[in-house]
Amino acid sequence: MKVLLLGGTGEARELAGVLTASGVEVVSSLAGRTSDARVPVGEVRVGGFGGVDGLTDWLRQHPVDAVIDATHPFAATMTAHAFAATREVGVPLLVLRRPGWAAESDDNWHWAATASDAAELLPRLGTRAFLTIGRQGLDAFAGTGLWTLARCVDPPEPRPSWCTLVLARGPFTLADEETILRDHGIDVLVTKDSGGPATAAKLTAAQRFAIPVILIRRPPLPAGAEVVETVVEAAQWVIRASHSPST
């Protein structure tokens, strides 16, 4: 059994370890956009495929029994390419997506469909903003006129002059997030609905400080995609596929 595993998420790294330990040959593909990325066990390739046609050609030249898309919930382009390419080649595709976050009674959340929509809403909710959306999409907030702190793993190019930039890689503790909100006088938080516990501490900190949060909704998955939410479910799917007559 050989699997192409797309994504540099924590779930992708965990799944690569589980599958490798089970005797599955795994090729992990990382986009290469993040410097000093954490590398999973097993074979690793870095860089894009060149769109749907490039991924289709790769799958034909490097036959695999299945493809698992464990990319970030906002990596919509890669997911769409994987869906189209696997259908073209006839290889099973599974999408592994952690569940999104759910608001609690004390949360003050406001949903936005896109970064642009979030930027339009932002001035109505605060004057000192904390953006934790990564470097992609930051430009949408350049014209808000608010004092803005933006946290990214790697600096955007060109480096923005309209905001204060913090370069840091999570996970961040609750104490970390409370400190940054307090020290910078933050009164509104903007983030993506990434889900999972690794980046959820900022939401708890915002709740404790009664700070409103703008959450950008996830892009929709391709219609008809097979989806699971946990590494365990994904591993079970691979095991079932390995015992099917067509594998």
Automatic annotation (TrEMBL):
GO molecular function term, any single one: precorrin-6A reductase activity
Organism whose genome encodes this protein: Kribbella speibonae
GO biological process entries: cobalamin biosynthetic process
Phylogenetic placement of the source organism: Bacteria, Bacillati, Actinomycetota, Actinomycetes, Propionibacteriales
Keywords: Cobalamin biosynthesis, Oxidoreductase
Pathway(s) where this gene product acts: Cofactor biosynthesis; adenosylcobalamin biosynthesis
EC number: 1.3.1.106
Tree of life domain: Bacteria
Protein name: Cobalt-precorrin-6A reductase
Pfam families reported for this sequence: CbiJ (PF02571)
